[in-house]
Amino acid sequence: MNNVRGLLAASVISIQNSCFIYPACQKCFSRLILDSRRFNCLKCGCAGKAKDARYRYRLSLKIADTSDLCDITVFGSCLDPFFGVTAENLQRCIQDFNQLAGETNTDASPGVLVQAVETCFIGKRFIFGV
Q: Which of 36, 41, 79, 89 could in theory staple to 85 by disulfide, Cβ–Cβ 3.0 to 4.6 A?
């Protein structure tokens, strides 16, 4: 992999999926496998109680600059200002909302959240560190 880093000014064309947070390993940041009682990381072997799992932002975007169209994923706490809360607090809000709405998929993002994220990002220009 190329170790060259730089900045890219580009506009967001679309949001690639509606799952904006994921349970993340605190050692390697990989996605955790969760069941009702436990979590475990397939990459580094970290394990624990499901209630102790930590969450992290993951926003997949299709972006365009003046000459290229590409996919990019933004991770972590740099998204806190856009969402107004940490990923863990947003996860709690989503779970509470889904429980009140009777949603069976407890990880599903409410449609209103997806619309808000689309309004916040689509058509806007950002500087991405790549």
A: 89
d(CA 128, CA 130): 6
- Tell me the pairing of strands 125-129 and 54-64: unpaired
Three-state SS for 51?
helix
Q: Consecutive 10-residue runs of the chain (130 residues): their mean pLDDT?
A: 84 94 95 93 94 95 95 96 95 87 70 92 95
- How many domains, in total, are found in the chain? 1
Look up the domain containing 95 and give its range: 7-19+58-129
Chain-centroid distance of CA 5 in Å reads 22
